[in-house]
Amino acid sequence: MKSFFRRQADEIGFSSTLRLYGFVLLLTHISTQIHLLQNDVASLWIRPKFFWEEADCWPFFPACDSLAAGEKWMFFAVVGVYALITFLGFAFFWMKKSSRFYAVLLVLFLVKAALVASRYAFFGNEELLYLLLSFSFLFLPGKIVVGRWLVVLFHVFAGWSMLNTEWLSGAALPARFAFPQPLLRFVLYEIALFQALLIWGVFSSGALFRKAVLVHLIALSFLSYPVSGFYPFFLSLACALFLVMTVWRDGVPGGISCDFSRLTGSKARVVFLVLFAVAQVFPRWISEDAALSGLPKLFAINVLGPSLQCHYHLFREKPGSTEDLRILSWGRTDRTLCDPLVFLERLRKYCLSATGEEKNHFVLLSKRTTDIRARVILKIEDACQKRNLQWFELKTSLGSY
């Protein structure tokens, strides 16, 4: 095990590009800490005072609200320790202590992964790409090759997910994104086309075309700032810089075919990228509309979160009467607002206090803003008699319910 980590640290230490990108990763942790100090973000980890402030949990960690700070200063103290470790990384980078620098990056990755794992609402497209790129940087051999293919494939799948009426009409964008309508339509089509197809230009042997693609990629990161804010923008920019730093000057030696041969020289790299690709394809295979699903798209790129509309019914049936309850809180962020996983977790908690004398039936209806009618996403008869409700979508698909 020790020799494994030594090899990873040596690969970073022997490459000036990887060392410099390790510095960029340190900067992303600074941006994370600044983001965590904002009141609306910090509140995700503060013990809720009202039912609508309860945490959005991952299905594999339904008790995530047990990891909540009693007071805001307690959470800020944790962020302070996180910051101290980051500045220690800057010191080791400056002193060119590659092994210690790698160790700090590893600890910071685990801290960041723990933060994401403790709050489902803290997870998004940029976090997904950042965590995958950091994982490949820290644990996989041939870091430049696998990182390059990861970033390209991420943009390809993001581009294909944009080829729908919701994105191309602008309905998927948050209301705060103000852009002249005729120009907006062109920009949205161009972004989808660039990510789905033109991103492959980073493998081009033509220096002018390759650099034009890279400049466009950086510009796309800056364009995300008015849409999603500073923190997602900075993560997006950091990931784009990986491609810029690895292909700007000399391109990809031998072109795409040679780079693919280098990629497939390691089973670990191939398995890593295949699992990522499967996570993107799986929702389309198992769901009628992947964008409206919860569990199937758990680790898939999602560009439609803010544009979904939904409502639910929780019918409590007692002898001689039926009530339609409105006691479940919604998701805490735009992305989780209509997420079936959030409602399943809320329903599971509600069922803990339900009595055996009643039956509770739950229905969730959701739609894209461009749809005319909502679809039934969840329909659970006598929900409180079901075990492991957070896995309901998967079990229904497999015929377990």
Q: Overview of this structure, please?
A:
The chain is of the alpha+beta class. The protein has three domains: 1-121, no CATH class; 123-291, no CATH class; 305-397, no CATH class. It is built from 16 helices and four strands. The chain has helices at 2-13, 16-36, 39-42, 72-94, 98-118, 125-139, 143-161, 165-168, 181-196, 207-223, 225-228, 230-247, 255-263, 267-286, 340-352, 392-397, and strands spanning 308-318, 321-325, 359-368, 375-380. It has a four-stranded antiparallel sheet with strand order 2-1-3-4, covered by helices on one side. A hairpin with a 2-residue loop joins strand 1 and strand 2 (321-325). The longest helix is centred in the N-terminal third of the chain and has 23 residues, at 72-94. The radius of gyration is 23 Å and the shape is globular. The two termini are 43 Å apart. The relative contact order is 0.10. The model has no long low-confidence stretch (mean pLDDT 86).
Number of helices: 16
How would a crystallographer describe the biggest sheet? 4 strands, antiparallel
The radius of gyration over CA amounts to 23 Å
Number of strands: 4
Domain module tally:
3
Which strands sit side by side, in order, in the main sheet?
2-1-3-4
In short:
The protein has 401 residues and is of the alpha+beta class. The chain has helices at residues 2-13, 16-36, 39-42, 72-94, 98-118, 125-139, 143-161, 165-168, 181-196, 207-223, 225-228, 230-247, 255-263, 267-286, 340-352, 392-397, and strands at residues 308-318, 321-325, 359-368, 375-380. It folds into three domains: 1-121, no CATH class; 123-291, no CATH class; 305-397, no CATH class.
